[in-house]
Amino acid sequence: PQTGKWVEIDIYPYSNGLSVFFKDIEDRKNAEQKLAKLSLVAQETNDAVSFVELNGKVSWVNNAYTKLTGYSFDEVVGKRNSDLLSGEETSAETERLMKEKFYKSQPFEGEILCYTKNNGKRWLYSTGQPVFDSDGRLVRYFIIQTDITERKKWEEQVRRLSTYVEHSADPIIITDQNGIIKWVNHSFEKTTEY
After folding, report:
1. Which of 28, 48, 71, 90 could pair with 145 in a Cys bridge, judged by C-beta atoms 3.0 to 4.6 Å apart?
2. How many Å is the maximal CA-CA distance in the chain?
3. Do the Cβ atoms of 98 and 52 come closer than 8 Å?
4. 3 state DSSP class of 155
């Protein structure tokens, strides 16, 4: 109350009284408070969050990670994300690029097809951010994975529809709300010679 600062007090009795030592821990307490706030954010987000140590192994995941992947906290910690989530159709090239950036202490991002514990396929947008200590040394990675499976399904439907429309034997015209032609397919050109 006197200084308004956090201090650690160690008291040691000896034959003539007490030895009292004060240590300023203001910086440590501020860091702990910031970490507690960040921890709350990481815990409550809908995105899968993991901390990955320099050896490539996971040291912590949030609840969203366990819900998304089907793995429990204990099943994940001490393992590599790639060992748990890679499967037959996972892009080896994307994994290689992400690992390359990881081992060069660089941020990375990308879309990758992953597999859950029960072998379900999920498209994830993964972002890896290196975390450095106050001396600029890499400590670990903070990885956020957003489930983009529904978006990828929609993109595939749009691609299929686009391919159908482009190659349809029927002439197809797309106009804006004012009737201005914005696009025609090849069949329209062939039929009308425009």
Report:
1. 48
2. 109
3. no
4. helix
Report d(CA 52, CA 76) in Å as an integer.
Answer: 11
2-25 residue pLDDT tens: 677 888 888 988 888 888 888 888
- For the chain, the distance separating the N- and C-terminal CA atoms, rounded to the nearest angstrom, is 85
Whole-model pTM: value is 0.66
* Contact status, residue 143 vs residue 126, Cβ threshold 8 Å: yes
Residue type, 46: N
Cα–Cα distance for residue pair 107/105, rounded to 1 Å: 7
For residue 68, how many C-alpha atoms fall within 13 Å in the half-sphere facing its CB? 27
| Token pair recorded at residue 91 | 């892009």
Distance CA 182, CA 171 (A): 14
Nearest CA among 180, 158, 160, 177 for reference residue 168: 160
